[in-house]
């Protein structure tokens, strides 16, 4: 009986050593995974602009912005427009107090580029192109935009304004695309970050 008890002790000790090594290995793997998560972004910065009509106009709506890496997803729904194309831009000042929204200033252009299409290599950062309003005066817009951010850098659009214009942006005329009067304006405000 004593031999059996003595023979079992080395096997038990070996089991404890293996268990200890496995525990250390699992802890090391968990630390590596958590360290990797530190460099990942589990949330996305978001912002919203609520568009209100300028004097004598009916346009209103919402524009949502979501940071996705080096791009910003822009999703808008605007109503009260005349059917057709309407210039759509981020402007430099977050001020919609003037009756015609002139208080929002010029197009947001931290890189001092020429006015152009949102896909052009050289353009204002705030050039979003055109909204297309249907027969009911409703426009939906979804695009991924580069050259802007929702952070704290010079390309941030937080605290700036979104403007909808009366006419189409021709994407070439300097400095505004000949888009006409401002029919709606909204301040871009940071939202609570979305967790993914």
Notes on the protein architecture:
Mean pLDDT is 86; it is low at 37-42. The protein contains 1 helix and 10 strands. With 196 residues, the protein is α+β, with helices and mostly antiparallel strands. Strands 6-5-8-9-2-3-4-7 form an 8-stranded antiparallel sheet, with no helix packed on it.
Give short descriptive properties of this protein.
196 residues, alpha+beta, 8-stranded antiparallel sheet, 1 helix, 10 strands, 19% helix
What topology emerges from the helices and strands here?
Blueprint: H1 2-38, E1 43-44, E2 46-53, E3 60-68, E4 71-79, E5 84-91, E6 127-133, E7 139-145, E8 161-165, E9 182-190, E10 194-195
Antiparallel strand pairs: 1-10, 2-3, 2-9, 3-4, 4-7, 5-6, 5-8, 8-9
Give a quick rundown of the structure.
By secondary structure, the chain is of the alpha+beta class. It has one helix at residues 2-38, and strands at residues 43-44, 46-53, 60-68, 71-79, 84-91, 127-133, 139-145, 161-165, 182-190, 194-195.
- Report the biggest beta sheet as strand number plus sense, adding barrel if it closes: 8 strands, antiparallel
Q: What portion of residues is helical?
A: 10-25%
Order the strands across the largest sheet as they lie in space: 6-5-8-9-2-3-4-7
Rg, please? 28 Å
The number of helical elements comes to: 1
Report the average pLDDT across residues.
Answer: 86
Order of helices and strands: HEEEEEEEEEE
How far from one another are the termini?
61 Å
Number of DSSP strands? 10
Are there runs of 5+ residues with pLDDT below 50, and where?
37-42
Shape: elongated
- Tell me the structural class: alpha+beta
Strand content: 25-35%
């Amino acid at each position: 009986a004593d031999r059996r008890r003595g023979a079992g002790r080395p096997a038990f000790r070996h089991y404890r050593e293996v268990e200890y090594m496995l525990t250390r290995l699992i802890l090391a793997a968990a630390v590596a995974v958590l360290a990797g998560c530190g460099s990942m972004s589990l949330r996305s910065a978001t912002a919203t602009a609520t568009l209100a009509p300028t004097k004598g106009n009916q346009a209103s709506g919402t524009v949502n912005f979501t940071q996705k890496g080096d791009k910003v997803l822009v999703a808008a729904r605007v109503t009260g427009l005349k059917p057709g194309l309407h210039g759509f831009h981020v402007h430099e000042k977050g001020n919609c107090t003037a009756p015609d929204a002139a208080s929002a200033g010029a197009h947001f252009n931290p890189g001092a580029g020429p006015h152009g299409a949102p896909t052009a290599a050289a353009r204002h950062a705030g050039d979003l192109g055109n909204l297309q309003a249907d027969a009911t005066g409703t426009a939906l817009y979804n695009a991924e935009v580069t050259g802007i951010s929702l952070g704290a850098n010079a390309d941030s659009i937080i605290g700036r304004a979104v403007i909808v214009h009366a006419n189409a942006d021709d994407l070439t005329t300097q400095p505004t695309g000949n888009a006409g009067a401002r029919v709606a304006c909204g301040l871009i405000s940071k939202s609570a970050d979305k967790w993914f």
